[in-house]
Amino acid sequence: MSANTIYLTADTFDEEVLKSPVPVLVDFYADWCGPCQALGPVIDGLADKYKGKAKICKINIDEHRKVALTYKVMSIPTMFFFKGGEIQERITGGLPAPVLEEKLDALL
To answer: Which domains are assigned to the chain?
Structure first.
């Protein structure tokens, strides 16, 4: 678990993601999800690598169902890339760090 990974709530989502001055990666996950757990260290590594350049966030779909429903998250892990408050890309399933880094770099 990285200190640089931001754990979102329904209350903090708009401020941290939609109003962010830097690109944001949001990982929709659940504690019981095996693939989500496998992706966890990758997300934390990105949070450390992109500190100050992009926000790397996670939101628990069990605790914040309304946000998951708003973004039509049907399976997890699902990751959204935001820039300027707009969704740039949506990915379902785990991907290796280099692929996620390439997508983040394209938004910087």
So the answer is: 6-107 (3.40.30.10)
57 catalytic per annotation: no
Q: Can you read off the two tokens belonging to residue 28?
A: 């929709």
Cα(63)–Cα(19) distance, integer angstroms:
22
pLDDT band at residue 94 under the 50/70/90 scheme? confident
**For the whole model, what pTM was predicted?**
0.96
Token couple for 51: 């500190």
33 is known as an active-site residue: yes
Active site residue: 6, 8, 24, 36, which one?
Answer: 36
Residue 82 phi/psi, 5-degree rounding, is -110, 145
Report the candidate in 92, 107, 21, 104 with the shortest Cα–Cα distance to residue 56.
104
